[in-house]
Amino acid sequence: MLTFLRSVRKCASVCESARKKIGVKHRTAHSRTNQCKILGIETSCDDTGCAIVDDSGNILGEALNSQQEIHLNHGGIVPPVARDLHLKNIEHVVQSALKNANMKLEDVDAIATTVKPGLSLSLLVGMKYGKKLALESQKPFIPIHHMEAHALTIRMVQKVEFPFLVLLISGGHCLLAVARNVDDFLLLGKSRDDAPGEAFDKVARRLKLRNRPNFCNMSGGAAIELAAQQGDPLSLPFPAVMSHHRDCDFSFAGLKNKARRHIIDQEENFGVGEDGIIPGVHDVCASFLLAVAKHLCRRVERAMEYIELKCLLPPSNRVLVVSGGVASNKYIARMLGVVCREMKYKLAIPPPKLCTDNGVMIAWNGVEKWRAGIGIAQNIDEVDIEAKCILGKDISLDVAKEDLKCDWIKEKILLAG
Ligand code: KG4
Ligand code: ZN
Q1: Which site from 174, 309, 339, 413 is most exposed, i.e. has the minimal number of CB atoms within 10 Å?
Q2: Which residue intervals define the domain Gcp-like in the entry (predicted)?
Q3: How far apart are alpha carbons 299 and 376 in whole angstroms?
């Protein structure tokens, strides 16, 4: 207990001196006045990740253990299985990241760890381990919001200044927000049901894409993207999603169910057996991908109109950042690129490796917080996980209140790229 109290006191005083050194609340990604090396731990879902990143955005060491293969075999993520795998791997992953960096724990300035949102059982493993490291090494602990980390990863690799518009699309989340500062977000809209990655995963599973050798080790989203390249996106029409809701919320359950019904019909019509795949599989993938991409584009367009109306971004510097696992989809990126071109925005997407869950983005978020002097735990004992936690201040009702009828970019233009 005494050691613990001493550690807490030491943490608090290190935080205080860090804050004094930094002085101001907000710095840009490229003011490198406060050197630091932060160790980041990610366990919010099914990947155990760790990295050490410095204030210049250099990845000094990293390690990632993906559970994808195991969960693909279980037909999805089973939380206790994910927890057990995190428990089994976390020590090794953290030690490997330190070894790759040729560093010891005492060489880092702080331990950053995802504590929200995510699967409770998974988050708990990372948080407990991160706290243990912080207490053992007497380093400050920085609790991290997983979605904030996705949103700010781009600033590690590109000069993107606040404020900017961000679309986060992954297996667990779908949201649009204005990032105003390291810890200041305005939430414009989020998914009312599934996330796009989840919809991709379920449709891919229903199509039994895993039974084809070239898709068997891929995530559902990546498999659909690859299969779609050989299909006709206009072959299976999907209805426009939420066209009567003039807001920035998303919904993917309707698209997923329509795809599911079509697959069942086709299986019956063609007498496809238990492990068989329907003949028009590529067309289904291409049409489903187009429907998802179009829905994302429409919501982004409305967000841009709302931003214009409320002057939320300076006209001279309008950037759309896209991140999360689904952001590695080239087809979706191309269509969002068209929206950006037409609406006079720059499009910024981190490299695919940094779009999916990893320890680097957590370490980088720790760097951002460290430099800004915010979010460093004063009392490590009071930090807890939060399975559900929105990003920033929810202004989605205000977006809906504006009832913005957009002058949509024509589908022909979106498709032409
Ligand atoms: O961000 P992430 O690694 O984990 C979550 O926080 O959810 O995202 C994983 C999701 C999965 O649903 C996967 O199917 C999807 O990202 N994904 C893709 C692609 N690669 C991964 N979706 C569409 N196209 C891709 N190329
Ligand atoms: Zn994620």
Answers
A1: 309
A2: 58-364
A3: 34
CA pair distance 302, 45, nearest whole angstrom:
30
**Cis preceding linkage at 163, omega within 30:** yes
- What are the tokens at 179? 């990032």
Helix (H, G, I), strand (E, B) or coil at 406: coil
pLDDT at position 410 is 87
Contacts of 178 (CB under 8 A, 6+ apart): 163, 164, 165, 166, 185, 186, 188, 307, 312, 313
Residue range 268-284: mean pLDDT, rounded: 93
List phi, psi (to 5°) of 111.
-110, 120
Q: Give the residue among 188, 40, 45 at the shortest CA–CA distance from 116.
A: 45
Q: Which ligand is nearest to the CA of 151?
A: 2
Contact 267, 208 (CB under 8 A): no
Mean pLDDT of 308-334: 96
The predicted pLDDT at position 77 comes to: 81
Query: Which ligand 1 atom is the nearest neighbour of the CA of 150?
Result: 1
Specify the range with the lowest mean pLDDT, choosing from 4-8, 156-160, 355-359.
4-8
pLDDT at 175 over 70: yes
Task: Convert the pLDDT of each residue in 85-98 to its tens digit.
Answer: 999 999 999 999 99
Our answer on whether the CB atom of 326 is closer than 6 Å to any ligand 1 atom is: yes
For the residues of 30-49, what is the DSSP string, one character each? T---S--EEEEEE-SSSEEE
Q: Of the given ranges (57-71, 145-159, 259-273), which has the lowest mean pLDDT?
A: 57-71
Q: What is the distance between the alpha carbons of residues 371 and 302, in angstroms, rounded to a whole number?
A: 34
Counting ligands in written order, the one closest to the CA of 147 is 2
Q: Which helix (H) or strand (E) is 364 found in, with range?
A: helix 359-372
C-beta of 118 in contact with ligand 1 (< 6 A): no
For residue 404, report the distance from its CA to the centre of ligand 1, in Å: 30
Q: Tell me which amino acid residue 126 is.
A: G
